[in-house]
Structures are given as structure tokens and as C-alpha cells.
Amino acid sequence: MPTFRAPVYDRIGERYATGRRTDPRIAAPIWAALGGARTVLNVGAGSGSYEPPGRRVVAVEPSIIMLAQRPAGTAPAVRAVAERLPFPDGAFDAAMGVLTMHHWADRDRGLAEMRRVAGRVVLFLCDPRRRPPWWLGHYFPATARLEAARETQVAELERVLGPLEVIPVPIPGDCADGFNGAYWRRPRAILDPAVWGPMSALSLIPPADRAAGMSRLRTDLDSGAWERRWGHLLGLAELDLGYSVAVTRS
């Protein structure tokens, strides 16, 4: 068994599967980007969301907490890290990763490993070039700083993977998957620890910063200040927050 640095989700992932679920409107462009791939490696697989049906999938996940939350019947899983994938060259038709790169110790090495073991790489990520300012960073500046420090420009991905097709994925207002952008139309939900607990962007900031943000958000929701500033969001069915599917062109 290789030696692992303690994964983030060994610390914050106890309730991951309760808040993070497959949303079919996000799954559709991810699965379409896999093309005709029959064998798929899911890197940073977590509890198994977005693993495509009808294909032979193998999951890679470093966190024992995440592995324990994979439901019965999901794809076989290997405890490993993106930077050291325990598979031979070209072992899979495609390798996919969903909101995972920001947790890797060496992003370039992880991407190169995905490219090594698969003919196609498909990533679901947040493209910072298109992400507009929105209320989460207003109430939680520490979250905005954390996300800015760990984001990856598409140009950086292309330096390792080659040319990419980038497909915008607007986030529905009733998104079933509980990542931090999913609640843009449901701010009061963020006050619930069961909601923010599975989000690294809120779980990993200092507790004092998180508590202060929750207090400001609750106050503004109760007073109507949130709606006066951000109420235009309530009439939207979906919002482009910069989330995208990036897929290698060759």
C-alpha cells in the first residue's frame, strides 16, 4: 500500500454523500463528452456521483471516508491519488474528474497521469474567466480567497493536456448536487451545517470567518437586505457561474 498524505475529505467528508448527489442536468454534458468510451477511469471519484451508466468504470479515490460512502453496486474503487495512477499506459478509453483538481497536491502531474492512462480526458471544473461576482464571496471573503488560490486557468490545463473544448454548464436553481455554486438561488440553505459541511470551500476556512459570514447572511436574509441586493437571481432558472466541461480534442 503506498503512503498517502491525509486527504482533505478524511477530515471533512463524513456527511459528503448526504449533500453531494448526481444532478442529471450536469451529468448529461459530462457523459456526452465521454463520447464512445467504453472504459472510464473516474479520478477523485468520491462517493461515485457522475459515474456513467452502461460503461466499465473504475474509480480512484484517496480518502477512506469517501470510499466508505460509495453505495453498493457502484464501480470498483482503488485507493490511490491522481499523481500516481496504478494503471498501465492507455488502460482506459477515457479518464474523468469532477470538481477534484483543486484537492490534488500536484495538478500538472495528476493531469499528465490522466493523459497517460486514457485516450480522452474529461473534466468538470469552474472556469474562473467566466465566473461573475456573486453573494457567496460577499459574505465569506475567506472562501473567495481560498477559491482564488486553488483555481486553474484553462490555459494551464492545455499546457499539459493539449487543446481543449470547453463547454459551459449553467447551474440550475434547484441543483440536486450540493457543491458551493449549487445554492445561488437558495441562500438560506447555506445556513444549515448539513448543507455547507460537504463543501470544502466553506468547511476549510477558519471557523471564526465562517461564523461571521453566517451571521451576516442570516441578518441580511431576515432584514430583506439580501433580496434587495441579490433578489434578481430569484427569477432565474439557471445561472452561469463559470462551471464547465473541458474535454481533450485529440
Properties at a glance:
12 helices; alpha/beta; 250 residues; two-stranded antiparallel ribbon; seven-stranded mixed beta sheet
Please characterize this protein's 3D structure.
- The chain is globular.
- The chain has one domain: Rossmann fold.
- The mean pLDDT is 91.
- The chain is 35% helix and 17% strand.
- The protein contains twelve helices and nine strands.
- Helix 4 (64-68) links the parallel strand 2 (56-60) and strand 3.
- It has helices at residues 9-12, 16-19, 24-33, 64-68, 107-117, 135-139, 141-150, 154-161, 193-196, 200-203, 207-223, 225-230; strands at 39-43, 56-60, 77-78, 92-98, 118-126, 164-168, 171-172, 238-239, 243-248.
- Strands 3-2-1-4-5-9-6 form a seven-stranded mixed sheet, with helices on both faces. A two-stranded antiparallel sheet has the order 7-8.
- With 250 residues, the protein is α/β, with parallel strands linked by helices.
The name of the CATH topology is: Rossmann fold
- Care to count the β-strands? 9
Strands of the widest sheet, in order across it, are 3-2-1-4-5-9-6
Share of residues in helices = 25-40%
The first-level CATH class is given as: Alpha Beta
Using the alpha-carbon principal axes, give the shape.
globular
Q: Report the span from N to C terminus.
A: 34 Å
Elements, N to C (H/E): HHHEEHEEHEHHHEEHHHHEE
> What is the CA-based Rg, rounded?
18 Å
Looking at CATH, the homologous superfamily is: Vaccinia Virus protein VP39
